[in-house]
Amino acid sequence: MSARSTLLGLVVTAALAGCSADEPAAEPRDDPTTERPSATAVVRAGDEYVALGDSYTAAPGIGESDGRDGCVRSRNNYPHLVAEQLDLELTDVSCGGASTTSLTGSQRTLTGEEVDPQFDALGPATDLVTIRIGGNDFALYQLISRICPALAARDPEGHPCRDEADKAEQDLDDLLDELEDRVVSAVRTVVRMAPDATVLVVGYPSVVPEDGTCSELPLADGDYPFALQVNRGLNAALKTAARSADVRYVDLYEATRGHDICGEDPWVAGRTTIGGKGVAWHPFASEQKATAAAIVAALQGP
Hints:
Elements (H helix, E strand, L loop, with lengths): L2 H14 L31 E6 L1 H4 L6 E2 L6 E2 L3 H9 L2 E4 L8 H4 L2 E2 L5 E2 L12 E5 L7 H13 L7 H8 L4 H22 L4 E5 L21 H22 L2 E3 L1 H4 L29 H16 L2
Helix pairs in contact: 1-5, 3-10, 7-8
């Protein structure tokens, strides 16, 4: 059993052993990576665009969705917005629940459908690729949205989620390092499979507040830093992957700072599903518009 599964297994067990439901905690680590934009090819009308990713790309609940395969891709998600603005031919294979393993292997969706590996959409004719992936690996996002909130009732003013990790003698940094290896491998494979494409690695938005707490993100008080470490660590992994493959990283964390779940104007939903506006724990249309704008700017920039 890997260090990753040991950590997750103990935290899940603790969550099921008697509490309510939700999220994680730990110190935010410094992000040593830097944005490394390579020379970005200019995309032209009619170019072939492939969007890879998980539910933060599929963006369920923000408009009409294609639910045929259970991936629940919204037609208002950022791949569709980018394709419409730049007049691109879009192949959107993002899927709710996808992890890095869904890139190279088939994925069974929540409806029981089996979808092909996302990398099957890539090829020599691909002109543009965006990829945002990693949040579902090792159930990291479930830590924030389900597992650590479930532990919060045990010690609401403490840090029970971090305590469970400490009992397991596991370090979240080690888990994030392993995630980084997976994402680096994935992005390098994209570059190899679509050799003539412009590749953009897209970061995750700000989800966890840097200060303060709120009922929509019902963690124990001391576990907010742990959840913030997960949020920042996902982006550190993606940024490193972009740099390792010499492609551009699109930083959404900075672009969405202050619009986390607890913000006055949140761009990501917390535990409450808002009919017509968004699904719990997923981006609102405002986040997808910000992501699309950042991608278009990156394509038009130096």
